[in-house]
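Sanity check record (used in CI):
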Amino acid sequence: MLMMLSVKARLMAATLGLVLSASASAQTGASFPVSVSVDAARKVADLPPVWRFFGADEPNYATMKDGVKLLDHLGALRKGDVYFRAHNLLNTGDGTAAFKWGSTNVYTETKDGKPIYNWALVDNIIDAYRAAGIHPYLQIGFMPQALSSAPKNTPYRHSWRPGFPYKLIEGAWNMPPKNYDKWRELNYQWTLHNIERYGRAEVEKWYFEVWNEPNGESYWKGTPEQFYKMHDYAVAGIRRALPNARVGGPDAAGAGGTFMDGFLAHVARGRNEATGETGTPTDFLAFHAKGRPTFVDGHVRMGIATHLQVVEAGFAKIAAVPEMAKKPIVIGESDPEGCAACPGPANAYRNGTMYSSYTAASFARIWELARKHQVNLDGVVTWAFEFEDQPWFAGYRQLATNGVDLPVLNVFRMFGQLGPDQVQATSSGELPLETIKADGAGKQADVGVLATRGPAGKVAVLLWNYHDDDVPGPDAAVGLALKGLGAGKARKVTLLRVDPANANAFTAWKAMGSPQSPDDKQYAALEQASRLLPSPPQTLAVKSGAATLDLRIPRQGVMLVSIEP
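Expected output for Beta-xylosidase:
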């Protein structure tokens, strides 16, 4: 069984896709040919590391055993340059984690209405980020109970659980403040405290944004105008403490519709409710983009087309406002669908390689859409973290289960090895942007490529074999033609693979019999199976800066080919 293989055996298995000669003919099984060409000498664009953002509804998981472990793994993806966004950081409560809920009790009041600030729980959360080398993308929300303008008998905390209608996450936490001056002061005091605790230089690296999806039916019960006012007062408090704070928003659901139009007009040229001046300081703009998977004919069918259409609509909306067109953009949540804590048949893609191949295919197109619209894409937040002490592979949208990484996290490790310069690369099996944006990848597989050049002449070629339907399909037999490798007669080649047999704890767990209480040896085997292990280096013959490779990528597989002196 896979999980019982030794490290050496797994390394040997990883080399099966690397064929440097005619031995490719020894491969067996169904496949279809794909021609990929890469010109490593021809830069086509900068490739900003937009993937380095993550987030979750549940802030308190960050301080729990598996949450701390996963934060450490995320921080290692790109040291000193990873960000984390979380809901519920200002909620009233004792800090007990729950689905789509969290609390820190930062703000209460005396009987005569004087503020009481308590930073202990929120400090623990941010301390956990910083211990892993992660910076906060600090979401200002939601409304503390003592500041909520909800009617007196309105329940504060929601009682939502998986399976309940999404709208049941309502409560007094999603209301405007009853006193905007106290709201501004809370933001001032929190920012001042963060400067004192973490240092001005560190806090100036953070992103500050107010609330979440204020245009949606669940997260905000005020009017758009009340939100603009709340946003202005929060920014005024933050900037009073830290004039160079990076402030923005509004992290709208989808492209934002008329709400986003109003927000953009307000921050660009409206009357600032807190200062009376024209406009509101805005260092970045944020919206959300989600796909729409379905369950058809007994299997999952992904909705990558919907995801990409929303991304494009958000880019176009921002680009159409002259004052905002060049501002950095963060897609504050970017995922195959909308609810990380909601299991169900349509979300069965999450544990295995469909999620990982979707991630490779979608990020490549998001980069492409940013170039098409000439916008300044700064970040793409993957709304996935972990759910502490839940059943193994429970079907939540997460990056790890019970402390063991899922295949999708290994695609982010591949992203971390991409260089800063995107170079010319084409694939005969890659669906054109307009085709996959309109129709997805349901009629044929999307066998795509993204290639980069990095320091010391390292070339990284990312390849994927993605299909919208979670059904078996043929491998892609890829003929990779490289040129522009420079002088010299040889290069070192290594492979990283995420597919059913590599970097995949889910396959290993099923082979064990799907135990819900793995013993220590089984746990160690699952950790081993989850690891992204490079193939033993091979020598690639180079002639006049050119070389060829024959590779094989299974359906829903992702491969990173690294070529270096």
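The two ends are 36 Å apart (CA to CA). If this sentence no longer matches the regenerated tokens, the check is flagged for review.
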